Automatic annotation (TrEMBL):
It comes from Sedimentibacter saalensis. One of its GO terms (molecular function) is citrate CoA-transferase activity. This is Citrate lyase alpha chain. It is found in: Cytoplasm. Gene3D superfamilies: Glutaconate Coenzyme A-transferase. GO terms for cellular component: ATP-independent citrate lyase complex; cytoplasm. Signal peptide: none annotated. InterPro entries: Citrate_lyase_asu, NagB/RpiA_transferase-like. GO terms for biological process: acetyl-CoA metabolic process.
């Protein structure tokens, strides 16, 4: 066992994974070698790529036992593709597959049966939610799950660490030769930023759509040079679970208080100035921050350079009003964002490598100034857990958390001090996902704490008259409200590893007793 850069004991070898490189620091790994690539091919002129069924597509790709397949999660909890494809594969008797989706949601609970029957033996993803996460935490999977950030997944695919044999990608609009986009049709999801990486690097690509359009389907996020087969199905997903009409601002007083505190911190930080860049999520307090920040931008006549990440109607509003010069979009969180992507050239679709892979010539997060992030737990070293609940069960996703925190000048965690009667600030987080040295400020409904590594921010906040606490003071307040939480008991069996964005292991996840 080796103690890594965040103080976690990491074995040198894990059965089912192999040799382990422990995490050291955010930029310690220097990559070597060249990018991987897909197979060379020679399709004949005027050959039709349209086939009759998913089962036929599986057969034509030559999928065999032990191979790796991938999916994307842009359909979120409305996705039908993963379950449809896995059912077809199971009927054909194929076993021992590694699946490498960009993320898995609650709608993917049926994968539990495919693990039990031996069709799936490995999973590598950014996130795994209940009930599948619960089953994995209890040891159902033969090999430990590998969890990566969005940028870390792109890095693993682009470097060849993860070699995808067949990518099965659901698309909202597609022609019969494989040009596709995500912002047209009844199942519109917006950007296909995660799927675009799979389409570039998989040996074979199958597009699955419920909206076959005449050739050519333009603009094309995925193009015909990357696609081998096209399948038309009745439905690729439930539109109600894919995107909402618009992600609405919160009226929750706690969320609003957190947002107000966050905006005070942003304005006092020194980074809120002409040309600043900005990323936030789609949670209640994050959306409220964007709304309050818009008011400050108008009041102080400040315009930003770009908004980044998962795009919402709130960020689209900043673009439409001329308060942002552009938006870079890896995924859309509502229909307003999806529609904007289809019509505004300054709303620009990017793949996950462009967004957050730290091993290229410069991803977008390297230009990020101000960042809002969430957390399930934060510890007194500012390490953040976004994967496992307070009971130790896998239930959420790493997402772009590690990537954006490493790149941003000001990385702010937004979280209530207490959630479901559990303190959010603890001595040691259950699972380290993002290292504390990349987190600058923690904003709660009870106050603000600044990482001691950022004396500049401490000085700026003091000058602005902004009251702050130490992280230990906030932890003490939380424990007075809830009591000290009981320690979770784990088995020795490792059920998962969390990679840092550079491929090193920042933590392991053990089976819950």
């Amino acid at each position: 066992m080796t103690k890594n850069g965040v103080g976690r004991e990491i074995p040198s070898y894990i059965e089912g994974i192999g040799q382990i490189k422990p995490y050291e620091s955010p930029f310690s790994v220097i990559p070597e070698g060249n990018k991987a690539g897909a197979k060379l091919k020679r399709p004949l002129p005027h050959k039709n790529k349209l086939i009759d069924s998913i089962e036929e597509a599986v057969i034509k790709t030559g999928l065999k036992d032990g191979m790796t397949i991938s999916f994307h999660h842009h359909f979120r909890n409305g996705d039908y593709i993963v379950n449809m494809v896995m059912d077809a594969i199971a009927k054909l008797g194929i076993k021992d597959l590694r699946i490498a989706p960009s993320s898995l949601g609650t709608c993917h609970g049926p994968l539990i049966d495919h693990i039990k029957n031996g069709v799936i033996t490995r999973i590598e993803s950014s996130g795994i939610r209940e009930p599948l996460g619960t089953a994995i935490s209890e040891g159902i999977l033969p090999n430990p799950v590998v969890l990566r950030s969005h940028g870390g997944r792109a890095r693993a695919i682009e470097s060849g660490e993860v070699k995808i044999d067949v990518a099965f990608l659901g698309v909202p609009a597609c022609d019969d030769y494989g040009n596709a986009n995500g912002f047209s049709g009844r199942s519109a999801c917006g950007s296909l930023g995660y799927a675009m990486v799979d389409a570039k690097y998989a040996d074979q690509v199958v597009l699955i759509t419920d909206n076959l359009v005449s050739y050519p389907c333009l603009p094309a996020s995925i193009n015909q040079t990357q696609v081998d087969y096209v399948v038309k199905v009745d439905e690729v997903g439930d539109p109600k679970g894919i995107v909402s009409g618009a992600v609405r601002n919160t009226n929750n007083p706690k969320d609003l208080l957190i947002a107000e505190n966050a905006v005070k911190a942003i304005v006092a930080s020194g980074y809120f100035k002409e040309g600043f860049s900005y990323q936030t999520g789609a949670a209640g307090s994050s959306l409220a921050v964007t709304g309050f920040l818009r008011e400050k931008m108008i009041e102080q006549n400040i315009k930003g350079s770009f908004g980044l990440g998962g795009i919402t109607s709130q960020l689209v509003q900043l673009l439409d009003e001329g308060l942002m010069e552009g938006l870079f979009d890896t995924q859309c969180f509502d229909l307003v964002a999806a529609e904007s992507l289809g019509k505004n050239p300054k709303h620009f679709e990017v793949d996950a490598g462009f967004y957050a892979n730290g091993h290229n010539s410069g991803c977008l997060v390297n230009n990020l100034d101000i960042l809002m992030l969430g957390a399930l737990e934060i510890d007194t070293d500012f390490n953040v857990n976004v994967i496992s609940k307070s009971d130790g069960y896998i239930s959420q996703a790493v997402g772009g958390h590690q990537d954006t925190a490493a790149g941003a000048k000001l990385a702010v965690i937004l979280a209530p001090l207490v959630r479901s009667r559990n303190p959010i600030i603890v001595d040691k987080v259950t699972t380290v996902c993002t290292p504390g040295e990349t987190i600058d400020v923690v904003v709660t409904d009870y106050g603000i704490a600044v990482n001691p590594l950022r004396q500049d921010l401490i000085d700026n906040f003091k000058t602005a008259g902004l009251k702050t606490y130490t992280i230990n003071e906030l932890k003490d307040i939380a424990e007075k409200l809830t009591g000290k939480p009981d320690k979770i008991e784990f088995d020795e069996k490792i059920v998962g590893i969390v990679q840092y964005r550079d491929g090193s292991v920042i933590d392991v996840i053990r089976k819950v007793k």
